Structures are given as structure tokens and as C-alpha cells.
Amino acid sequence: MSCIYILRTLRYLNNSRELVVGIDLGHPRRRSTGVCFYSEDTDRYIILTITPVEVLSLLTALKDQVKVVAIDAPLSLPRKGIERDLEKYCRKLGLRLIPPLLGPMRRLTICGICIKDVLEKMGIKVIETHPSSCLKLAEVDRRDILNIVRSNILNISKLDKHGVDALICCLVSVAYVKRLHIELKVGEDSLILFNGRLIQWLRRERQ
To answer: Which SS3 state, helix, strand or coil, does residue 63 take?
Structure first.
């Protein structure tokens, strides 16, 4: 991903009054983090695969326009052990979340918490989500999601798995703003997801 392409994206998004965002975190030092911006003004999604630092740079530049950011990563640490009560509760519902401190997830969790802290200091609402759980609840797969919003994605030819999951995270942000979301809350930890209600809304909007 060239700096020129990022700058073009920033120039385009600067014209939007309000944005919601989804982030699929990858390796902190590699361009493997998917980020998806949705502009309600234009009804368009822009999806990039870049580094977490580049994501933060974009969000900092757009902080006055960004309303909600949904991140696919644990955004808190367990009080003891490798998993939170939230993971245990989700498992009872048939949703499989990887424990925050299990192997490579530790690095992802710390990265997610750091990004959340930075964004919240900017006044941006940050929510935790899990794309696979959304798909399960909505009874759709990634291909279905792409088929529904394909015509509204500006850079469809550049999508990879990280980009698609970032798109799903972004749809969680859309659901949150539209109050079409589900919140699973255990203590101070919560997971925001969408189900079939959002899918129905998306299909109606595009008829």
C-alpha cells in the first residue's frame, strides 16, 4: 500500500461529515491490518490493508469526523488466567472467541488496547467485536456480505481476508449507530455484534 494511495483515501474521506470505521487487527509491524471506512454521505466503503500505525495516522487526521470504531480484538485483559468471563459466556452461546492471552493473541490484545486508549483520548467511541460471531448470528458468510454491499465498495479489487473482516467490523459500527446491534455484556467487558436484522436493513437499503 503506497503512501500516495493512503493520501488519496484521506482526501476522499475529508469530504465526509461523519464516518464509522471497522478494524481487523493484524501483525503490529506488517501491513496486515484491515481498516474499513463507511461514509453515510456517499454510502461508500473504502477498505485498506495497512499497518496499525498507519491506521492511527488516518484516524487522527479524521478524528473530528469519526463517530464509532469497531475493532476485532480483545480490548481488555482477564482478571486472572488467559481468558475473560466474556469468552466463557460467549462459549456457552456457541460463539468461539480466542482467549486474549493465548499465544499470539497476547500481542494482538495489547495492540488493540493501545489503539483503544489513543482513540478514546480523541473522543472517539471504540467497541469490541468479532466478525465470525456476527456471521454466525446473521446466518451468512463473507461472500454473502460482499454480494450485499459490493456495489458500494470503491476498491473491491484490492480486498483480502483482512479487508473483508474489516468490512464486517465496519458493519458492526453501522449497526451500532442504527441501533441494530446486539450487546453481550459480562461485568465491564462487552462485545458488540450484529444479526439478521442488520442484513435485512442492508438489503432493503439497496433495493
So the answer is: coil
Compute the radius of gyration of the chain from its Cα atoms. 16
Give residue for cell 480483545: 74
| Count of Cβ atoms closer than 10 Å to residue 202 Cβ | 18
> Given this model, what pLDDT does residue 4 score?
72
37 sits in which H/E element: strand 33-39
Who's near 150: CB < 8 A, 6+ residues apart? Answer: 156
Q: Which amino acid is residue 100, in one-letter code?
A: P
Whether 29 shows a pLDDT value over 70: the answer reads no
**In this predicted structure, what is the pLDDT of residue 207?**
62
Which domains does the chain possess?
A: 3-205 (3.30.420.140)
Distances (CA, A) of 133 to 2, 33, 38, 128, 129: 32, 19, 21, 12, 8
- pTM, to two decimals: 0.93
